[in-house]
Design a protein that fits this description.
Elements lengths: L17 E12 L2 E12 L3 E5 L6 H8 L12 E3 L3 E4 L11 H6 L7 H11 L15 H13 L5 E5 L7 H18 L2 E5 L3 H7 L2 E6 L2 E7 L12 H13 L9
Parallel strand pairs: 3-7, 3-8, 5-6, 6-7
Antiparallel strand pairs: 1-2, 1-4, 8-9
Helix pairs in contact: 3-4, 6-7
The structure holds adenosine-5'-triphosphate.
The site of adenosine-5'-triphosphate has 11 residues, from helix 1.
Length: 253
């Protein structure tokens, strides 16, 4: 990872069972404080979803921990896993390269092609290796982007609204896919999303960001791995998170 400027430093630290440890992250744009001294830790294999209203700073936080923002300051440290991958709302596939070369771009060694093929099989794109990105649907492009991330066997996967541009049905399929991929590859995950149900379906823990601070930090591990939107415990988590987001859900009175 590239070092973050200011007083923050980035270093490889996967021995402690932690793939992300950020302390006192602060980001200001002029007078406005978008991230206000945040602490955030993600354990190996832990799936953390980040919710917050539009403009609350979710993407700013993800960019900061991805090392993509050199305007971050803080009194503490940012430690991230050695192998970190990032996926965005658009696939960012190179239009002039076919699917398999896109997935293995930058990888070297005899096994790279096989690893790319396996990753494409895992995301359901077997047979599309020689397609051009513009021949894939939006959902398929995001599958390819996931394959490109996971082929590197990341300890930490950072995802900024990866399903935000997809239709509702495709998004549900992608949730099931991401759950299966995480079971196989076991990355720690930070997923930025607007979608409360997406967060409760996928995450071990959900954070809610508001005014530069976390206003909720909710453990969802009681829901287990197979989750249903109709489960009363699922509904209870959803309601609590909507309340933290300031959305009125009660019809009483
Ligand atoms: N380069 C920039 N210059 C000035 N202000 C910025 C810049 N980037 C982001 N901001 C401001 O920081 C705040 C947080 O933006 P950010 O994109 O992180 O929000 P978000 O929670 O991801 O929003 P959304 O859910 O709409 O994507 C916003 O008010 C935005 O206007």
């Amino acid at each position: 990872m590239a070092p973050v400027t200011g007083q923050l430093s980035t270093r490889d630290d996967t021995r402690t069972g932690t793939v992300l440890a950020a302390h006192d992250l602060t980001r200001r744009y002029g007078e406005r404080t978008v991230l206000d001294g945040l602490d955030l830790t993600i354990a190996e294999g832990e799936f953390v979803a980040l919710l917050g209203r539009s403009g609350s700073g979710k993407s700013t936080l993800l960019r900061a921990v991805a090392g993509l923002d050199d305007g971050v300051a803080g009194s503490g440290e940012l430690e991230v896993a050695r192998e970190t991958s990032v996926v965005f709302q658009d696939s960012r596939l190179l239009p002039w390269a076919r699917v398999l070369p896109n997935v293995v771009l930058g990888l070297t060694g005899r096994d790279a092609r096989d690893a790319g093929q396996t990753a494409l099989d895992d995301v359901g794109l077997a047979g599309r290796e020689r397609a051009w990105p513009n021949e894939l649907s939006g959902g398929e492009q995001q599958r390819a982007a996931l394959a490109r991330s996971l082929v590197r066997r990341p300890d930490l996967l950072l995802a900024d609204e990866p399903f935000g541009a997809l239709d509702a049905l495709t998004r549900l399929r992608m949730h099931a896919l991401l759950r299966d991929l995480c079971a196989k590859y076991r990355p720690g995950v930070l997923l930025v999303t607007h979608d409360v149900d997406e967060a409760v379906t996928l995450a071990d823990r959900v954070l809610v960001l508001d005014d530069g601070r976390f206003v909720a930090d909710r453990d969802l591990t009681d829901l287990g791995t197979r989750r249903s939107l109709r489960d009363p415990a699922f509904i209870a988590h959803r309601e609590a998170l909507l309340e933290a987001l300031g959305v009125e859900t009660s019809t009483n009175g």
